[in-house]
Design brief:
- This protein is an alpha/beta fold.
- Among the domains are: 256 residues, no CATH class; 84 residues, Cobalt-precorrin-4 Transmethylase, domain 1 (3-Layer(aba) Sandwich).
- The protein is built from 22 helices and 16 strands.
- The strands form 5 sheets. The protein has a 4-stranded parallel beta sheet. Strands 7-6-8-9 form a 4-stranded parallel beta sheet, with helices on both faces.
- Strand 12, helix 18 and strand 13 form a beta-alpha-beta unit.
- Helix 7 packs across helix 8.
- The longest helix has 14 residues.
- It starts with 9 loop residues before the first helix and ends in a 6-residue tail after the last helix.
Length: 577
């Protein structure tokens, strides 16, 4: 890599001392408390070392937080070079295009101030910069660092092409911090720079090409930046001994970055939304979950209770926005019985009316009659199939009209699940159709006209609701807007549906996108509270959902369902890798 201005030799050991001696950062430190997690080599993902959100976070740490962190790591200092007490004279730097903003110099600045300024100017997290200082020269924990080590703090300007030598014009702690941040940020600018970019390629284990390569699919810009800075992937031996040596073909730079970051700041793939509390509404089964959701959100008696089967999804999906409009809970029952917990909850709620959604095959006449004993008035919204039942629910609940209607396929559930909460938040129905057909049925066309719908929002991509149906919807009298809320999978559809419907919300609900029942009752409550419901994978939160939580200004995130449906890691904002 002739001409590259970064020290590629750092990838061999990461913290290799100059003059041939080893310094303590040759190996990563033992786990320490600061947000540390138990990690093993099997957790290392070579294509996704750190998330873009964590790496390019210009507000990751305040100046005082950086200072406190350094004080805690260094303790008693043996000379004036310790990073927590070292003072530097810095100078002005002009803005550098789209890479770094201008930096204003000052006399006698603490290192914490310099790191903070560089973080803000170049958009590289102070956490990442601290880790870089440690894995290069062990400076974060050094109690008597030499001038020599400070001058080469991040290894910037020490390319392989120079035989391991360094360019003196880049010496100095301030210089090193700024230039390293500038270089790392440069890799992510709109004009790609550097050999490593997101995509699949072969990466060396070691400068010795006989050691071989690993096929790595780089998932994001931050990981590409790390490989451009340290172009080796840790081999199995390095990962088998995370805080020790591997073999002759091992390189440790990127491994050590990941280990230090994990030990000091937690999972580098996790973004923690500030000020957000988390909780879970679970139960022994889907029926108990529906009761728990009702208990938490309806402490007083209600006028209406909706009841639908928990054995199949279509009836409850269309019932959710109707229940939200009525300010009513949605309780689930098996087709042939009423669980004791559900019966007790209805008795507590003392509804004047129960609306059963679904025909006799979904909720049997015996269950209907038993429910009738718990209220003054009971009715059933049903039809010959899920589509007619959906239309009847909409006609009953939205008889006064609805300017907006969500359309979703009745063949699968995920698209309609998020749409149910979004629809409920604005008083709109969800109308199920057979999205695999090429012609919209006349009954749905008539319903859209009867409700006075002008705005149709399709939840799901062309594989869920065919383009021919979308085109036909735009020809319905009175309809002025037809928009599709889609994405490459159910999780993106959920995100795009919620992003379209919610500009802000103090609360966010999450539920499994693979197992629907827990979310059915939650969609009704989310809609009533004008809160989004995101469907997510079982064990992680997509990064765009975490960003939405921040953008919405949410202060509470509620997971629906037990640990088997949504894993405990989600409550810790485990980000999908």
């Amino acid at each position: 890599m002739a001409g590259t201005r970064i020290r590629l030799l750092r990838g061999l050991i990461g913290g290799l001392a100059l003059a041939g001696l080893l310094v303590p950062s040759v190996m990563a430190p033992a786990s320490s408390a600061d947000g540390a997690q138990a990690i093993s080599g099997s957790d290392f993902l070579p294509g996704y070392i750190i998330s873009d959100d964590a790496f390019y976070d210009s507000s990751a740490m305040s100046e005082s937080e950086i200072q406190t962190f350094l004080d805690g790591k260094i303790g008693t200092c043996g000379n004036s070079n310790c990073l927590n007490i070292k003072r530097l004279d810095t100078y002005d730097r002009p803005a550098d295009g789209s890479i770094c903003a201008a930096v204003t110099g000052a006399a006698g600045e603490l290192v914490s101030s310099v790191i903070f300024k560089v973080q803000r100017a170049c958009g590289i997290s102070a956490k990442a910069l601290l880790v870089l200082l440690q894995k290069e020269q062990s400076l974060v924990t050094a109690t008597a660092p030499s001038d020599f080590r400070l001058s080469r703090a991040t290894g910037y300007g020490c390319p392989d092409s120079a035989g391991g030598g360094c360019d003196a014009k880049y010496y100095g702690l301030y210089n090193q911090l700024y230039e390293a941040a500038w270089q790392l940020k440069r890799y992510s600018t709109p004009t790609p720079w550097g050999r490593y970019q997101p995509g699949t390629l072969e990466i060396l284990y070691n400068p010795n090409t006989d050691c071989g390569t690993q096929t790595v699919t780089i998932r994001n810009n931050a990981t590409a930046a790390l490989y451009n800075y340290t172009p080796y992937v840790p081999n199995a031996a390095a990962l088998a001994n995370l805080r020790g040596a591997g073999d002759d073909c091992s390189a440790y730079g990127n491994r050590n970055f990941w280990v230090y970051y994990s030990d000091w700041f937690g999972d580098p793939l996790v973004t923690y939304p500030p000020g957000v509390t988390t909780d879970r509404i679970g139960g022994n089964d889907r029926y108990d979950v529906s009761v728990a959701i009702s208990q938490q959100n309806f402490p007083n008696p209600v006028a209406t209770v909706y009841v639908a089967t928990g054995s199949n999804y279509p009836d409850a999906l269309t019932a959710a926005p109707a229940a939200a409009k009525a300010g009513a809970p949605l309780l689930l029952v098996p087709a042939n019985s009423i669980p004791d917990s559900v019966r007790t909850e209805i008795q507590r709620l003392r509804p004047a009316e129960i609306i059963v959604v679904g025909g006799p095959a979904s909720v049997t006449p015996a269950v209907f009659d038993a429910l009738a004993q718990l209220t003054t008035t009971i009715s059933r919204d049903s039809g010959s199939d899920r589509y007619e039942a959906s239309r009847n629910v909409a006609l009953h609940a939205f008889s006064a009209g609805a300017g907006v209607a969500y359309i979703a396929t009745g063949e699968t559930f995920p698209d309609a699940l998020s749409a149910s909460a979004a629809a409920g938040s604005i008083g709109a129905p969800v109308i199920l159709i057979n999205g695999l057909l090429t012609t919209l049925d006349s009954a749905t066309v008539d319903l859209i006209s009867q409700l006075g719908v002008t705005d149709i929002r399709i939840a799901g991509g062309p594989a869920s609701v065919r383009p021919e149906l979308e085109a036909q919807m735009s020809t319905i009298a009175g309809v002025t807007s037809v928009r599709r809320l889609s994405g490459p999978d159910r999780f993106y559809v959920s995100g795009n549906t919620n992003r379209d419907a919610f500009a802000s919300s103090s609360r966010v609900y999450l539920a499994s996108g693979w197992n629907y029942p827990d979310a059915l009752s939650g969609a009704a409550v989310a809609g009533a509270q004008h809160a989004p419901l995101y469907v997510i994978p079982t064990d992680c939160i997509p990064s765009y959902v975490i960003q939405d939580i921040i953008s919405l200004g949410a202060t509470r995130m509620t997971v629906l369902g037990g640990p088997a449906s949504v894993s405990p890691g989600v409550l810790r904002f485990a980000q999908c890798r």
